[in-house]
Amino acid sequence: MKVLVTGGAGFLGSHVVDKLRSRGHDVVVPRSRDYDLRKREGVHRVLAHNPDVVIHLAAVCGGIGANQKRPADFFYDNLVMGANMIDLSCQLGVKKFIQVGTVCSYPKHCPVPFKEEDLWNGHPEETNAPYGIAKRALLTMCQAYRAQYGFNAVYLIPVNLYGPRDNFNPETSHVIPALIKKCVDAKRNGESEITVWGDGSATREFLYVEDAADAIVAATEKYDGGEPVNIGSGVEFTILELTHRIAGIVGFEGAIRFDASKPNGQPRRCLEVSKAWDLFGFASRTPLGEGLRKTVEWYLQQNQ
């Protein structure tokens, strides 16, 4: 198939592109400097490549701090990019559209593990609600276009991702790259302690990026349904445990202090992931310890 991957030069996208090419697909990767997907003219030009399939990964995203600083950008840019891509892909005859959502769309106090049918049963956690609601709205749009036009739009909900090529900028990074950088810097600088946001009690589920790419490719090739599908590992860890694991891998032996004046974010996060196996044969393969070691090794190679 000819597959266009928006965000294909980014963290997740670059791994998806690698997997698609290894399976013989013809992949097109538009760059954001050349195509502004917030503008319909930019989307028209992107779709002039005449893809069979569009995988829409382009997004404005980041950790809690970035969400708090730029809630309007996180809402508007993600909503408008997705709406333009879905509408014009449908109009211009794209055969299949993969919209990648976010675990941030789930309600703040969702029963654990999060099931796809619980998505609408409450408001997302406040610090990332604009981002989560924008992505949630795109699920409604996918389903509406399927109902009215027969458009084969698929919606996937990945959990927190990590791995090589992640964003390690402390202003915008998610928790794992932020903690890796913090521990590496502290060890190199001989610091006696590090400070971590929150009280350490919040839980998160993590999925290694290559596993996530496998899931997206499997859904692209095998799944044509209209119901959203969770993509994750199905295992949760506290931020306290995660921090100690990363410190151990890096070799940082100083004190770890938690700053409870900073937000924890959502209290718990863990997905029910059986549908992904039932519908297109995906299950995560990489345990957290192995994935963290690979990620730390990659980061150290890039920052010697």
Describe, in plain words, how this protein is organized in 3D.
The chain is of the alpha/beta class and 304 residues long. The protein has a domain at 2-162 and 207-232 and 268-285: Rossmann fold, CATH 3.40.50. It is 43% helix and 16% strand. The protein contains 10 helices and 11 strands. The chain has helices at residues 11-22, 40-47, 64-69, 71-91, 129-149, 175-189, 209-222, 239-250, 274-280, 288-302; strands at residues 2-6, 26-28, 53-56, 96-100, 153-158, 160-162, 193-197, 203-208, 229-231, 236-238, 255-259. β1, α1 (11-22) and β2 (26-28) form a beta-alpha-beta unit.
Write out key terms for the chains shown.
304 residues, alpha/beta, six-stranded parallel beta sheet, three-stranded mixed beta sheet, globular
Brief synopsis:
With 304 residues, the protein is an alpha/beta fold. 43% of the residues lie in helices and 16% in strands.
From the N-terminal CA to the C-terminal CA, the straight-line distance is 40 Å
- Rg, rounded, reads 19 Å
Strand content: 15-25%
Main sheet: which strands, in order across?
A: 2-1-3-4-5-9
Highest-level CATH class of the domain at 2-162 and 207-232 and 268-285: Alpha Beta
Biggest β-sheet strands, sense, barrel = 6 strands, parallel
CATH topology (fold) name of the domain at 2-162 and 207-232 and 268-285: Rossmann fold
What general outline do the C-alpha atoms trace? Answer: globular
What series of H and E elements makes up the topology? EHEHEHHEHEEHEEHEEHEHH
How does the helix and strand content classify structurally?
alpha/beta
Which segments are poorly predicted (pLDDT under 50) over 5 or more consecutive residues?
Answer: none
Q: What would you say the CATH architecture of the domain at 2-162 and 207-232 and 268-285 is?
A: 3-Layer(aba) Sandwich
Mean pLDDT: 96
Q: Give the helix level as a range of percent.
A: 40-55%
How many beta-strand elements?
11
CATH superfamily of the domain at 2-162 and 207-232 and 268-285: NAD(P)-binding Rossmann-like Domain
**Continuous helix count:** 10
Which oligomerization state do the chains in this entry correspond to? single chain
